[in-house]
Amino acid sequence: MIAYIKGILSSIQDESVVVDVHGVGYELICANPFAFQSALNEEILINTYQYVREDTLVLYGFKNEDEKYLFKKLISVSGIGPKGALAILASVDISAFVSAVEREDDKFLTSFPGVGKKTARQIILDLKGKLVMELTVSVEQDQEVAAITGSETKLAITEAQEALKALGYTDREIKAVIPKLQAMDNKNTDEVIKNALALLMKN
């Protein structure tokens, strides 16, 4: 298995990044490729997971070991493949996700694309008690507040994305600023849009 790739981040695409390692370009599929934008044309180390099936060989890239571990656990759940796991990782706060699993919060889990009630129950059944032990993230004592906050932030960013598309911005432009928006303390959708416009004007 390829545990990580270290080299020059040569390009960022809508669903992947390319890392040049001594003249060989490795394409890594990522939940949010633009999260690596600050390292473009610089040396970078990206954690990887090598996904192998009879007719498939794909390298997935992650910002840290927690993301990689959660991805591996998610694809072990019946009903969730790599694409579904990436969709969850693209917008989830890991500590809020762990809190939701521990609290058996179906509503939070079904807010992710492709996760219905049956899959949410399977996630809880398969992962409850396992994520807290392995992940380095700390789960807040007030787990309900953490989960609700994460869900509200995700919803606000999703609504803001649609508004920005209506204003004429492309998916590529919008995805490029999402990591910065996720790091901000946005109170609502209007605030997300305001901050996103400020970031887009700088780019």
UniProtKB/TrEMBL annotation:
Q: Where is the Helix-hairpin-helix DNA-binding motif class domain?
A: 72-91, 107-126
Span list, region Domain III: 149-203
Q: Which Pfam families match?
A: HHH_5, RuvA_C, RuvA_N
Q: Does the keyword Mitochondrion apply?
A: no
Single GO BP term? DNA recombination
- GO CC entries: cytoplasm; Holliday junction helicase complex; Holliday junction resolvase complex
Alphabetical UniProt keywords: Cytoplasm, DNA damage, DNA recombination, DNA repair, DNA-binding
| UniProt-annotated location(s) | Cytoplasm
A GO molecular function term, named singly, is: four-way junction helicase activity
Is-annotated flag, keyword DNA-binding? yes
The main location is cytoplasm
Q: What is known of its domains?
A: Has three domains with a flexible linker between the domains II and III and assumes an 'L' shape. Domain III is highly mobile and contacts RuvB.
Which family is this protein grouped under?
Belongs to the RuvA family.
Known partners and oligomeric status? Homotetramer. Forms an RuvA(8)-RuvB(12)-Holliday junction (HJ) complex. HJ DNA is sandwiched between 2 RuvA tetramers; dsDNA enters through RuvA and exits via RuvB. An RuvB hexamer assembles on each DNA strand where it exits the tetramer. Each RuvB hexamer is contacted by two RuvA subunits (via domain III) on 2 adjacent RuvB subunits; this complex drives branch migration. In the full resolvosome a probable DNA-RuvA(4)-RuvB(12)-RuvC(2) complex forms which resolves the HJ.
Function of the molecule = The RuvA-RuvB-RuvC complex processes Holliday junction (HJ) DNA during genetic recombination and DNA repair, while the RuvA-RuvB complex plays an important role in the rescue of blocked DNA replication forks via replication fork reversal (RFR). RuvA specifically binds to HJ cruciform DNA, conferring on it an open structure. The RuvB hexamer acts as an ATP-dependent pump, pulling dsDNA into and through the RuvAB complex. HJ branch migration allows RuvC to scan DNA until it finds its consensus sequence, where it cleaves and resolves the cruciform DNA.
Name of the protein in its database record: Holliday junction branch migration complex subunit RuvA
Question: Which organism does this record belong to?
Answer: Oceanobacillus zhaokaii
Report the gene name: ruvA
